[in-house]
Amino acid sequence: MSETVAIRIENLSKNFGRRKSKRIQAVKNLNLEVHAGQVYGFLGPNGAGKSTTIRMLLDLILPTEGNAYIFGQHVRREHQILRRVGALVEGATFYNFLNGRRNLEVLARTANHYDPARIEMLLGQVGLSHRANQRVKGYSTGMKQRLGLAAALLSDPELLILDEPTNGLDPAGMHEMREFIRDQAALHGKTVFLSSHLLGEIEQVCDRVAIIHLGEIVREGAVEDLLADKTYLRVEATPLDKAADVLREFWTVTVNGQSMTVVAARSDIPHVVRRLVDQQIDIFHVAAERQTLEEYFLSVVQEAVPHA
Question: In whole angstroms, what is the distance from residue 167 CA to residue 55 CA?
């Protein structure tokens, strides 16, 4: 396998429960490929299988079936490959009685890559230099997330796997985290695999995304390509209820107060307008907008039908 592929997941599945009647299939035949240098978003509702997939990728739990590779090496058979990975999974746990700097020193010494200068640099990059001497017991959730990101970068890994890295951060902190993550790829050549429920953040930072629902990937692709798939048409017309009924036969329509939203391909826009005019409906305003990643995500999840 080419080392230009940072992550490859092949037919990965995970079942929980020994008894067949109570067995839960958390991940179902997952296939995924992430190229080196990308910032890749892994999206899904709670319980979709995101954390289970990440834990299998990091060899923290065994898959029921399938294989996971990092830089072409099997994560179980060639476990040393995980030395090239830094991870922040479901928050960060530290020694509460030690300060932030000391926690990083312990982690670095344990992993045999102690570098005092790098620790100080990372504390500055994640915005904790002024709190480095404070005990972690007094850290907020956001501060622990920042410290966790610094810990993930201690070994200067080639691949970063981040699970909800913006948890507990205020809007300014989220902006800083977004810029920091983007810089890891753009300036430092790292690959970032990012799981988050904050879709506005994902849209601004990721090159590609995969949407997982009920353990299966239901959409995958470049962010720009996915969002160009459908156009939102904002329409003000009278009578609005009649206009919505006319269009619902062909498109998804949502009435929002004094206007409605029509989900349609850009090439369908003239047909939308023509159908309204043919039914003697007065049109006062029409505006085409590209959907946001959040809107796309919600539409995909709502359309997904679980397999029998």
Answer: 19
3-state secondary structure of 12: strand
pLDDT at 250 over 50: yes
Give the span between the Cα atoms of 189 and 152, in whole angstroms. Answer: 16
| Domain with 245 in it | 231-290
d(CA 222, CA 71): 21
The answer to whether the beta carbons of residues 41 and 32 sit under 8 Å apart is: no
3-state helix vs strand vs coil in the chain, percent to 5 = 40, 30, 30
At 280, give phi and psi (nearest 5°). 55, 40
Reported pTM:
0.80
Q: Would you give the DSSP letter of residue 214?
A: T
Q: What is the pLDDT of residues 124-171, one digit of tens each?
A: 999 999 999 999 999 998 899 999 999 999 999 999 999 888 888 888
- Same structural domain, 221 and 237: no
Expressed in angstroms, the distance from the first to the final Cα of the chain is: 35
Determine contact, residues 37/69, Cβ cutoff 8 Å.
no
pLDDT tens digits, 173-221: 888 888 999 999 999 999 999 998 778 778 889 999 999 989 999 989 9
Rounded CA gap, 12 and 164, in Å? 22
Domain count, the chain: 2
User: What is the number of other CB atoms lying within 10 angstroms of the CB of residue 235?
Assistant: 24
Could you tell me if 14 and 156 lie in one domain? Answer: yes
Give 135's DSSP letter: B
Q: Would residue 304 count as lying in a domain?
A: no
